[in-house]
Amino acid sequence: MRGSRVLFTIAVGGALGLAIFAFLARRATRVEDATPPEALQRFSALRDTLAGRREALVWWDDSGKPRHRGIPEGEEPPRAPETLGVLAYRASDERLTEVVVPFWFVRLKEPALRFALSRADFDWRSLGLGAEQLRRAGPGLVLDERDAEGNLLLIWLR
């Protein structure tokens, strides 16, 4: 009898946790239609609002491997990041996706963040950075990419 209560409590707790996560992930994500000029304007406007690091922290070299610009070791940033944002544009669908999550969510739930960013068709692991490295890097531009098909991706910390 006691074992079934424990299992029931674990099941209810797990279901509640999944429901909360799903609510937060949906709330943090916005998807809309946008023409290429509208998307370019949105990306440009967002870049203009970013304070801190103006050069991207991450870029891909010719072989497709991520490269990182000097992340300070053991140094504290002038200000800790409060949010992580991703703006992605898929040109073939004319679909613009924006995800903004509190930075504590990144530190606490990196696997959950990967799930939330899947709507932006972005694999978080491809950056080769963890939450601690991003925290040390501080606010600013993390990634600013455009591919040959016109797809755009911008990641930032505020």
Task: Please provide a brief summary of the model.
By secondary structure, this protein is of the alpha+beta class. It is built from five helices and seven strands.
Keywords:
158 residues; 5-stranded antiparallel beta sheet; 7 strands
What can you see in these coordinates?
The chain is of the alpha+beta class and 158 residues long. It has one domain. 39% of the residues lie in helices and 25% in strands. The chain is built from 5 helices and 7 strands, in the order αβαββββαααββ. It has a 5-stranded antiparallel β-sheet, sandwiched between helices. A two-stranded antiparallel ribbon has the order 2-3. It is globular, with a radius of gyration of 18 Å. The model has no long low-confidence stretch (mean pLDDT 81).
How far apart are the first and last residues' alpha carbons, in Å? 51 Å
Helical segment count: 5
Strand order in the largest sheet: 1-5-4-7-6
| Helix-strand topology string | HEHEEEEHHHEE
The assigned structural class equals: alpha+beta
Uncertain regions: pLDDT < 50 for 5+ in a row?
none
